[in-house]
Design goal:
Shape of chain A: elongated
Order of helices and strands of chain A: EHEHEHHEHEHEHEHEEHE
CATH architecture of the largest domain in chain A: 3-Layer(aba) Sandwich
Oligomer: homodimer
CATH superfamily of the largest domain in chain A: Tetrapyrrole methylase, N-terminal domain
Largest sheet of chain A: 5 strands, parallel
CATH topology of the largest domain in chain A: Cobalt-precorrin-4 Transmethylase, domain 1
Number of domains of chain A: 2
Helix content of chain A: 25-40%
Distance between the termini of chain A: 42 Å
Radius of gyration of chain A: 21 Å
Chain lengths: 255, 255
């Protein structure tokens, strides 16, 4: 008789973007699942434990196995962490903020689960990228998330202009993030590099008490006080005016 | 004395992707907000009312003002629908499925709210694009959502190959959707057009009872039964092997 190997499931659990209470941003089912799991892979073990303390935990926090995943960990180590899946034990993956495997190294663990044929379950929760895109009023039918722009000023300005051209040609919103201490410099580069009629959205402290999402043209922003500070998370989104020779793509229907 | 005009807030309320109960995919705060609002703009009034029936409604359903937004409605009409914001009345925007203003025409209403200086509040809820990306195990640090591929077979194959080249050059995941009745044709085009070592994720019925998310190489998929059917929503994601001359971008940190 052939024994069918039953893998555990890798649960992808979003965590908060701010200090607001979880009922504001996490469905009850996600909270219940987070409280049940005994094995976690986390981008940051300290913030993951702080998150779990606010969940309906079914186990003592110190009994929960926690591995810390960064981009330097080798694949063999990640595989060894995922071994419990082979024993039928469910595991959790959490990011430092928001949804795991988006804008963090978590996809490396998810890819191994797929190689093994284990089930991967994404749970609903907050994503700064998605919340900013929804609230920007910019094109949500085509968009690119770039992560970080280059750091060197000349490369950065050149890259931003290139993304602006792509936005104009493909009628596409461009999204990028920055480490908080460079927010002001990033905003200034955007204002200097983008065209006056390009629409720029600045989204700050999403789901937090100081949430602010504003979309203005670059020309309008030039006459405003700088909206970002260097100690709060911000996202930058922009959409260029369509190139004259581009026929607007047909409006799409929701999947 | 100058009177400060206090606008109402435009609340962006995600709705379900499947028939599963809302506690599975909607935070309590989002449900409370949905139940409080008296004025809605919806992509589909019928599905919006069905959604509201499952929310903790504070008003009779028939008393809730509901406008139906599609891509053909002119901007002046949308502005007239948003007039209550000017009176300080909060309004809701809902899509036919998932998050409003992403892969639907909702951004047009959000853009007007920004023009007026009204506050826009994005609430947490399910997005098939985000859930599929999380669970794909593909690159989550750089990605593009394209909406729909062209319909004509030759244009479609050409476009998919072009997106594959961009994926290889920029180490970027490519996401697209299809109307359910073309799912099988889309899957077959992907298998024929993409390289054998490109990783392809097929995500079906997200948050639903038949949720299935699998990532295999195109070569592996060729030896499998076709995973999609023509009556369930599916998303397709792929990531090409990196071009040999591309240095992998630095791993990014979460915003």
């Amino acid at each position: 008789m052939i024994q069918i190997k039953q893998f555990g499931t890798l649960h992808l659990i979003p965590v908060g973007l701010s200090s607001t209470l979880a009922d504001q941003w996490l469905p009850e089912a996600t909270q219940r699942c987070a409280g049940l799991l005994t094995h976690y892979i986390a981008e940051n073990a300290k913030t993951a434990r702080a998150f779990l303390k606010t969940m309906p935990l079914q186990h003592a926090l110190q009994d929960i196995v926690m591995h810390e995943l960064n981009s330097k960990i080798d694949p063999t180590t990640i595989q060894s962490w995922l071994e419990p899946l082979k024993l039928g034990i469910d595991m959790g993956l959490v990011s430092e903020a928001g949804c795991p495997a988006v804008a963090d190294p978590g996809a490396r663990a998810v890819a191994i689960a797929h190689q093994w044929g284990a089930k991967v379950k994404p749970w609903v929760g907050p994503s700064s990228i998605l919340l900013a895109l929804m609230a920007s009023g910019l094109e949500g039918q085509r968009f690119t998330f770039h992560g970080y722009a280059p750091i060197k000023p000349d490369e950065r300005a050149k890259q931003i202009k290139q993304w602006e051209s792509i936005s104009a040609l493909q009628n596409q919103t461009q999204l990028l993030i920055e480490t908080p201490y460079r927010n002001v410099a990033m905003f200034e580069t955007l204002i200097k590099s983008l065209k006056g009629n390009t629409m720029l959205c600045v989204a700050i402290d999403l789901t937090g008490p100081n949430e602010s999402i504003r979309t203005l043209s670059v020309a309008q922003w030039s006459n405003q006080p700088i909206p970002v500070v260097n100690d709060r998370p911000a996202l930058f989104l922009f959409q260029a005016a369509l190139s004259a020779n581009v026929v607007r793509a047909n409006p799409t229907k929701k999947a």
